[in-house]
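User: I'm curious whether this sequence folds into something compact or stays loose and floppy. Could you predict its structure so I can see for myself?
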Amino acid sequence: MAKAYSPGLLVSAGCQIRRRRILPIAGEVLAKAGDRVASRDVVAKALMPGDVLPVNLARSLGIAARDVPSALKVPIGAPVQKEELLARSGGLFGWFPKEFLSPASGVVESVSRVTGQVLLRGESRAVDVAAYLDGTVVEVVPDEGVIVESYAAVVQGIFGIGGEAYGTLRVACSSREQDLTADRLVADMAGQVVLGGRRVTEEAVHRAIELGVVGLVCGGIDDADLKAILGYDLGVAITGSETIGLTLIVTEGFGQIAMAERTYRLLSQHAGASVSLNGTTQIRAGVIRPEIVIPVPQVNSVAETQLTTGVLDIGAPIRVIREPWFGVLGKVTGLPSEPAQLASGSKSRVAEIRLASGETVLVPRANLELIEG
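Assistant: Here's the prediction. I'll summarize afterward.
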C-alpha cells in the first residue's frame, strides 16, 4: 500500500463539545446538573493544603529532642505568623535562654520527641475551577467537579504554552501571512486575546506581556525565540504550567509559517467575541491539543467542521507531531512499502520526508499529519 491516512487538527465553525472541569483534590461542587454557566463561572472550589516545612528545634535551641514539646510557645494545631516566637529554651539554670522565631506563617502540625523536629504546615491555598465553556452542566462528579457541554467554534493548535485564559478576540494582523511584531500591539489590547498571522517574534511576546495581553494565537514561532521567552529549553512532553504572563498558541509549527487560510478566516470572523483558550499540549500517549473555543449559536444545518486529514502521498505537505522533529514542516518524498527498523529497535511503516531545512529523514507515518499546501 503506497498511501496512508494522516490525522490532523480540528478546525470547526460549530460543534458540540464537552470538557471535564475537575478539582485536583476533593472539594465542594457549586453547580448542579442542568445549570447554565458562563466560561468564567466558578463551578467547584477546594482548599489546597500548604507545603510542610520541617524545623529542627532541638538543634536550633541546643536542647534534647525530648525537651522540644515543653519549649514550644505555640500549641499543636494553632496558627503562627512569620517572625512570631515559636519556641524558647530554659537556658542554663535559667540563664541565657534561646528563642526561635517562626521562619514562615502556617500551622504547627506536629512535634517529635525523637527527632526534635516541628512540622509547620503552610497556609492553605484556595483553588477555584471555572466552567471554561459557556454551556450547560450535563454531569456532576461528586466532590470533584462537573462536565460542561457547549456548542462552539473550535480551533486546535499544534503547540502551546500557558494554561487557560479568557478574553475578547482582537485581530492584530490583516493577513495570515503577516508576522506578529511588537509594533502591532497597542495599549488597549490589555485583557484581550490577540490573533496574529505568520510568525510571532520574541519582542512581540514580551510587549504583549507588558501590555497585559492574556493570549496570543499565531501561525509559527522560532524555536530560539521560544527558548529566549521561557529562559530555558522547554522540551515537548507536556506544557501548560508555564507562567510567563500569557497563553501562547501556535497553530502550524516552528518557523516562519503562515496560519492556515481556514483557521485565520474562522478566527478573524469572530473578532470581538469572548473566547476561551488553553495552551496545554501533550504529544505522547493521550494527545492533548492546545485550543481556542468560541461560543456560537447552534444552528439546525450541518456546521462546517474540517480536519486537516486526507491521503498521505508523494509531494504531500506535512508536519511532524513527535520528537525529534516536533512541529517541523516538510514534504513527502517517498513511502517505502516495507516497515523500517527505528532507533528504538521496533519496526514501523515510515515515510521519507524532506524537511524545510533540506534534510531528508525517515519518520513513522503515525508521527505525521497533513497540512494545507
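Summary: The chain has three domains: 7-46+132-295, 52-122, 310-370. The chain is about 10% helix and 40% strand.
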